[in-house]
Amino acid sequence: MELFAHHGYEATTVAQIAAAAGVTEMTFYRHFGSKEALVVEDPYDPLIAEMVGRQPVSLPPLLRAVRGVRAAWRTMPVADVEPVRERVRIAARTPSLRRVMRANTTRTEEAVAQRLVGEGCDPTTAAVAAAAVLAALMTALLRWADEDGADLGAAIEAALDVLEVAGA
Which domains does the chain carry? Predict the structure, then answer.
């Protein structure tokens, strides 16, 4: 992240990253697969979809999605937020990474929508609920990253509160 912050994402090479880490480029690719993965890797999709699935099916789909994301967040809060803030800032300010972030968000939307549909929700309603929740989450993350000292948990909870009130 220091190399990206100092030189910019596009100007930083995998060779520079590997050298700074004291490994070969081959080792770098074995662990990360791509330079993009260092910044935009998102391992939370399965957990988010699982937590949406744990919500009562009697709730409207939007509330199931909101409460599922909220439950997922609460099981995996980030202890050291500054590296996360830096990663989100770099991704948000780099057009190629911003596209990758959007693609990751789309995959998460699809996972949430599939979970809702698998439990009896209309596909369009499921897609809208998932898109709304992920848009709120992404907006919260991007705004949070630009505010030094802002609390990540509070930003996520506030964004979900907007939708939960609307869906209640």
Answer: 1-33 (1.10.10.60), 35-167 (1.10.357.10)
